[in-house]
Amino acid sequence: MGKVYEKITPHLKTFIEKQKMFFVSTAPLSQDGLVNVSPKGLDSLRILDETTVAYLDITGSGAETIAHLKENQRITFLFCAFDGPPKLVRLYGKGEVFERETAGFEAMKSLFPEYVSARSIIKVKLHRVSDACGYTVPLYDFKEDRDTMKKWVDNKGVDALVEYRELKNKVSLDGLPAFNNK
């Protein structure tokens, strides 16, 4: 059954780093606002220490996570075992957004592979770490990372990516401010 931890233990670290996909969930303060869950993949997560994680945020069609973090900092990560023994791990914390071309982004970007489509790095200080059984999570075999994002970025080009973020990533679906720079 589930357990609460004060920090990411070596066992949990090994489990988290093995996962090919994870989910982040955020919500605005408004009760009428949309709760957001976003899947994340590629080689985008780093465990910085026992209570701090960061992930590379790739350009997408929305900016809910960023807008919610800027409003209230709350974020939850979910890692599911899709192979091997069943297990779920949740990380709860307060996140900070470091947009492209800011000092925080520049200081951490070397931790990740270089993606032209990276628009920010999210750094999260954890206040709760827990696991659960994951008995209902189905088994899947990982085939490979999709190349769709790379093809989309290669087709668009750097200048078009900047325009896309300007058009699609300024505000959340609820109208909260998201990205400031390009």
Describe this protein's structure:
It is a single chain. Strands 1, 2, 3, 4, 5, 6, 7 and 8 form an eight-stranded antiparallel beta sheet that branches. The protein has helices at 10-18, 64-72, 103-108, 148-156, 158-168, and strands at residues 3-5, 22-26, 36-40, 45-49, 52-58, 74-80, 88-99, 118-132. A hairpin with a 2-residue loop joins strand 4 and strand 5. It has five helices and eight strands. It is an alpha+beta fold and 182 residues long. The chain has one domain (3-135, 145-168): Electron Transport, Fmn-binding Protein, Chain A (Pnp Oxidase, Chain A).
**Total E-strand runs:** 8
Radius of gyration: 16 Å
CATH superfamily: Electron Transport, Fmn-binding Protein, Chain A
Helix content: 10-25%
Q: Class in CATH?
A: Mainly Beta
By secondary-structure content and strand pairing, the structural class works out as: alpha+beta
Q: Approximately what portion of the residues adopt beta-strand conformation?
A: 25-35%
Task: Specify the overall morphology.
Answer: globular
